[in-house]
Specification:
Distance between the termini: 97 Å
Largest sheet: 7 strands, antiparallel
Number of strands: 11
Number of domains: 2
Oligomer: single chain
Strand order of the largest sheet: 4-3-2-1-7-6-5
Number of helices: 15
Length: 354
C-alpha cells in the first residue's frame, strides 16, 4: 500500500458554521497553500492567514478555527496539526511552534523563574509597603486587637508578676510612652504584660500599637532604662507599620503561590493562621534598621545611654549570657531573637554611641 502525499491526505471531522449548534460531516486537506474544506459536496478555500489551530486540552477534540466563524472539529489531532504545519503560517501559529520548541520552552521557564524570584525579593516587599501605608490606622488597630486576643488563647497567659510589680514597670514606662504617644497620636500605644513559656523572653509590637512584654523579658532587664530602650525599638516597628507590611507581604506571597500552583487551600490556611503569622514572621534587616534608628534617636532625646539597649540585647543571646539563670530565661526557640535577628553590628552601633 502506498502513502499519498501529505497534501492529498484528508482529515475527517465535523463542521460548525458558527451560527448554530448544527454540525455537518466534513473533510479538509491543503491544496496550493490554502485549506480546502469540503462540506455537503461543496468546497471552500481558506488562505493560510484565515486558519488558526485551536489549543487542545487533554484528550479533547482539536479544532481549526476559520475566518468566517466556522470551526472544523476532529478527533484526528495529529492530522489537524499536520494541516497547520503544511499551511506554513507565520503569524498566528506561534503557540504551536512554541509548544514544540525545546529552546523556547527552556528559555521561557528560566525567564518565569527569574521574574518570580525578582518579584518575590523586590516587587512584593515594595508593593507591601505601599499597600500597608495606604491602609487606615483604624483597620490596623482592629487587626492588632484581634491578633492579641487570639495569641492570648494560643500561647499567652495573664502575667504572673504581682500587681505591684506591674504598676511599678508601667509607672516607669509611662513618661516615655507619653512622649511617643504625643509624637505619633495616630497610633494608640498600649503596654501589656503576659506570661508565656512558648515565647520566652520576648517583646513585640502588634499592628496599631499594642506592645507586649513577657514576664521573662521584664525579669531579664537590669533596670527600667533597658526596658525603655526595648519599648522604643518596638514603637519604631509600630510607627513604620512593619507588622502590617509583613502581613500584607505574607498575603501577597500566598497570592503568588496560588497563582502559580492553583492551590486555593493555601489562601484559607493563610487566613486561619494570621495570628501565628504576626507572631512568627521575622523582620527584614531594613525594618530592624528603621526600628533601631527610631530607638536610638529616642534614647538620645531622653538622655538614656544607648548602651542600655546593647546590654539587654547581649543578655538575650544565650551564648553571651553571664549566668545559667539568664541563659535559661533567654533560651527557647521563640525568644526575642527569633523574630528580631541579632547582629554584632547592631549591638556595636549602640555601644559606640554610649
Amino acid at each position: 500500500m502506498s502513502v499519498s502525499p501529505s497534501s492529498e491526505q484528508w482529515v475527517v471531522g465535523r463542521y460548525f458554521d458558527g451560527n448554530s449548534s448544527h454540525s455537518s460531516e466534513a473533510r479538509a486537506n491543503v491544496v496550493g497553500g490554502c485549506l480546502r474544506l469540503e462540506v455537503a459536496g461543496k468546497s471552500k478555500h481558506y488562505p493560510a492567514d484565515q486558519v488558526r489551530l485551536g489549543v487542545q486540552v487533554g484528550s479533547a477534540n482539536s479544532y481549526l478555527h476559520l475566518s468566517d466563524g466556522g470551526v472544523l472539529e476532529s478527533l484526528d489531532v495529529s492530522g489537524l496539526q499536520r494541516l497547520a504545519r503544511e499551511l506554513k503560517r507565520s503569524g498566528d501559529s506561534w503557540l504551536q511552534r512554541f509548544e514544540v520548541n525545546t529552546r523556547l520552552i527552556v528559555f521561557s521557564l528560566i525567564a518565569v523563574l527569574a521574574f518570580s524570584v525578582i518579584g518575590v525579593l523586590y516587587g512584593v516587599p515594595w508593593l507591601s509597603a505601599q499597600i500597608a501605608d495606604a491602609l487606615p490606622v483604624e483597620l490596623e488597630t482592629r487587626i492588632g486587637e484581634e491578633a492579641l486576643a487570639n495569641m492570648d488563647k494560643l500561647w499567652m497567659e495573664p502575667s504572673q508578676m504581682t500587681e505591684a510589680r506591674q504598676q511599678e514597670v508601667l509607672s516607669a514606662m509611662a513618661p516615655y510612652l507619653r512622649v511617643m504617644q504625643d509624637d505619633y497620636p495616630e497610633h494608640s500605644l498600649q503596654l501589656h504584660f503576659r506570661a508565656s513559656e512558648a515565647l520566652g523572653a520576648n517583646a513585640f509590637a502588634l499592628p496599631g500599637g499594642n506592645l507586649v512584654f513577657t514576664d521573662d523579658m521584664v525579669a531579664l532587664a537590669k533596670n527600667d532604662e533597658e526596658l525603655a530602650s526595648v519599648m522604643a525599638h518596638e514603637v519604631g516597628h509600630v510607627v513604620h507599620r512593619h507588622s502590617m507590611r509583613n502581613l500584607v507581604q505574607g498575603s501577597l506571597l500566598v497570592f503568588v503561590m496560588v497563582s502559580l500552583t492553583g492551590d486555593i487551600s493555601a489562601a484559607s490556611d493563610m487566613a486561619a493562621g494570621l495570628p501565628a503569622l504576626l507572631a512568627s514572621l521575622s523582620y527584614q534587616r531594613g525594618m530592624e534598621t528603621e526600628a533601631d534608628d527610631f530607638a536610638l534617636a529616642f534614647l538620645q532625646q531622653q538622655a538614656i545611654a544607648p548602651q542600655r539597649f546593647a546590654d539587654i540585647m547581649q543578655r538575650l543571646d544565650p551564648g553571651s549570657a553571664n549566668s545559667d539563670e539568664e541563659k535559661d530565661v533567654a533560651s527557647g526557640l521563640s525568644s526575642f531573637l527569633s523574630t528580631h535577628p541579632p547582629t554584632p553590628e547592631r549591638i556595636e552601633r549602640f555601644q559606640t554611641l554610649d
